[in-house]
Amino acid sequence: MKLQSMNVETLAQKVMNQEPLFILDVRNEQAFSDWKIEGKSVENINVPYMTLLDGVDPLIEKLPKDKRIVVVCAKEGTSVFIGDMLVEAGLKDVHYLKGGMSSWSDHIEPVKIGDLSSGGEVYQFVRIGKGCLSYMIISNNEAIIIDPIRTIDPFIAFADKMNAKIIHVVDTHLHADHISGARNIREQTGATYWLPAQDAEEVTFSFEHLEEGRNDLTFNNSNVDIKIMYSPGHTIGSTSLIIDHTYFFTGDILFIDSIGRPDLAGEAGEWAFDLRSTLYNTYQDVAKEVTVLPAHFGTIEELNNNGSVAKTFDEILERNTSMNIKDTEQFHALVSENLPEQPNSFVDIRQTNMGKVTPTSEEQHEMEIGPNRCAING
Amino acid sequence: MKSTKIVDAKGLSCPMPIVRAKMAMDELQSGDILEVHTTDKGSQADLVAWADSGGHILEKELNEDDVFKFWIKKA
Prior knowledge:
The complex is a heterodimer.
Chain A: E1 4-6, H1 8-16, E2 21-25, H2 29-34, E3 42-46, H3 57-60, E4 69-72, H4 77-88, E5 94-97, H5 100-106, E6 109-115, E7 121-127, E8 132-139, E9 142-146, H6 153-161, E10 165-170, H7 182-189, E11 192-195, E12 208-209, E13 226-230, E14 239-243, E15 247-251, E16 259-260, H8 268-280, E17 291-294, E18 311-312, H9 313-319, H10 328-336, H11 346-353, H12 361-368, E19 375-376
Parallel strand pairs in A: 1-5, 2-3, 2-4, 4-5, 9-10, 10-11, 11-12, 15-17
Antiparallel strand pairs in A: 6-7, 7-8, 8-9, 13-14, 14-15, 16-19, 17-18
Helix pairs in contact in A: 8-10
Chain B: E1 5-9, H1 16-26, E2 33-38, H2 41-53, E3 57-64, E4 67-73
Parallel strand pairs in B: 1-2
Antiparallel strand pairs in B: 2-4, 3-4
């Protein structure tokens, strides 16, 4: 049988449905250790193609004979090259990932989180390759989007399909790991763009200030409670939302098993105090039964069985070790010392999100490739 | 640096820059210098990894007008 292609949509479905998958990643070791396809049912081995130029014979014995093999590289040229060699060597069921890790980085899947009490639904858009989570709340033919990623077509298409007009688009903070799609959504739909003013001192465009006490971030056609809560720490402006008293959008402040890092705008020391105060004071007043919906997942272990990333606040308080550090100094040390590597191009991404630079679409795509690295694990 | 051979892989994408480099290197003697030119960003790290995996030594690399140039000494 000839080499077959597999697109990222099919691969994402398999990962989220936890179908067994065998992936042969032929990128170099560094690229693989930085970032790879992960899933509870995924077996992923790395054999850099540079070691296979004399032939795939040494590799054949490492590969399962009775399983489908998906060959993956950065774009796709190399996985076609190696895939063809495997087929020639007699393997029967070999696929290559169309568009490679580059397409994997951009792919998003919508998953329903739950219903609103007065009618309507909450959807999560899982960018599975990079760990970004965006949201769409729909009620009575209107939609509000929270933390949209750069590739906005899936949001526009989904709102169309649900027969909803996008009226507000919100960034919970100025993102450093990915380029916000909010301004483009505003341009295409006329939606109002909300951003915390304290993160936006240098921005070059107009926006509504996302701040506590405002009561005009609402649906027009229905009465859904939207509470804005100032929650600094990851950035000085970071703001959380509680919608319908049930859905707690924590941005990059609180994740399922980790918390936001305070250093991506160069202020780790000072913002560590804010982060502590937000997590250990402000957040403690939130009802424990709400569903926490963060802007990222850190590891694939955080995905629920339906592919969503959401847990009750109660459960997070119990399992997230960073929420259980009694000693303030110990907490400070955790969030300001020995921090993990920063996200790729995070300075350029911040500049782009402020509107100070306008990279081409291809450049924006390149800037974002790789893991998100916004979290600190306690 | 005096190169024994130059591989022009400009405009080619993965895996061709590495394939070309490998074919050229196979014809060289130990201690010879292979010079590789590529415009494919992804190939940079791959060339370094390939040189490493064969025990070759990366003597020098530079970026001139978006052309990445490498000088690799054969093991």
